[in-house]
Amino acid sequence: MKKQKSVTRSxxxxxxxxxxxxxxxxxxxxxxxxRKGLENNFSTEIQSQASVISAEMxxxxxxxxxxxxxxxxxxADTYKEKGYDRTTxxxxxxxxxxxxxxxxIVFFNKFxxxxxxxxxxxxxxxxxxxxxIKGKETIRYDxxxxxxxxxxxxxxxSDDSYFGAVEIRSAVTTQELVDKITSNINCDITIFDGTERxxxxxxxxxxxxxxxxxxxxxxxxxxxxxxTIKLNGQQYISYYYPLCDQEGNxxxxxxxxxxxxxxxxxxxxxxxxxxxxxxxxxIALLLILNDFFVQQFFYDDSKRQI
Length: 306
Known about the structure:
This protein is of the alpha+beta class. It has three domains: 2-33 and 264-305; 55-171, Beta-Lactamase (2-Layer Sandwich), CATH 3.30.450.20; 174-263, 2-Layer Sandwich (Beta-Lactamase), CATH 3.30.450. It is 55% helix and 25% strand. The protein contains seven helices and nine strands; from the N terminus they run αααβαβββαββαβββα. The strands form two sheets. A five-stranded antiparallel beta sheet has the order 6-5-9-8-7. It has a four-stranded antiparallel beta sheet with strand order 1-4-3-2, sandwiched between helices. A hairpin with a 2-residue loop joins strand 3 (147-158) and strand 4 (161-171). Helix 1 runs antiparallel to helix 7 and helix 2 (50-82) runs antiparallel to helix 3 (86-100). The longest helix has 47 residues, at 2-48. The protein is elongated, with a radius of gyration of 34 Å.
């Protein structure tokens, strides 16, 4: 009988160890796949958020276009009576600057020379201005001094003749834009000028440079990069992609990142109840097996006594 008890205990021990090991394996596999799945989901999410940034930038460009067309129409109406009136130009420029955050509001005569006050911006005569005087409209992104601007250049026309042009520029890449988008999409944003972080949602990181310059080189060649990086001691799933103008010319690199601490928190909240379920199931199974072997042992023992 003692020998039978020893065998029973050994069998129960082996089963218990097996259940524990099997449960641990299940937990490890589930946890790994869960974290990987969440990271993949985060990666897909931050790539899709690039469209949100593009939409915000397009809004700035469209606003610049709306202002320029209003200025174009208003100045054309006054030109018939007042010609190149400096007061009218200043009033239009002041209104556009104060109400729409336009940085440059510059008027040109029919010879392509700037005739508006330099306090509202200075723009040299360029082939684009010359084309505008002939009737061509230009609506595009361009880059000056690290910033990307929404630039609109429209011809000025009175009756059937062109008498000049107007250029309006508004900054597309700003700290205000970064702060707004970061708040809306719950991701961190950085806009680079070369390898330098020009505008960023990371505290005290504006003006610093990226550690891996090859990411910027790939962006300059039109290639986005998805990577897990460490910033300020935190792991981020990150997406670096190029911002280009309407002709496909590279302007700057934009970073979108999501802290993987959130993935760990979500995984933990899902995984912990699963561990308790597996643990409870294992205990219940061991109790059932123990009861089965005990009953079997007493049944066999009673048979021998009979």
